[in-house]
Amino acid sequence: MNFVAKTFGELSKEELYEILKARCEIFVVEQGMRCQDMDDMDFVAGHFFLEEEGKILAYLRAFYDQSENAVKIGRVLSITHKKGLGTMLLDFAISEIKKAEPN
Q: What is the enclosing helix (H) or strand (E) of 91?
């Protein structure tokens, strides 16, 4: 398993496809979300994911909210539930975000 942190422009086509597929599987199919998932925030968000052999196991995105002067973390998804993958990814993302903060 590999933890990955990338900007939108750094994502490969394959990574983006796997991310969107995972978001659809969890948010639309499993949770029945009835709103537009692709909301243009992907372009400015940081994308954090746990992958294995090209498959997304867990994913989240984070972005800077200028109005609140804060980084916001969006929904966290895990393809396999009750294994702690979402928590592990959240810890990784917070660590990476803190490294990127200006002092």
A: helix 85-100
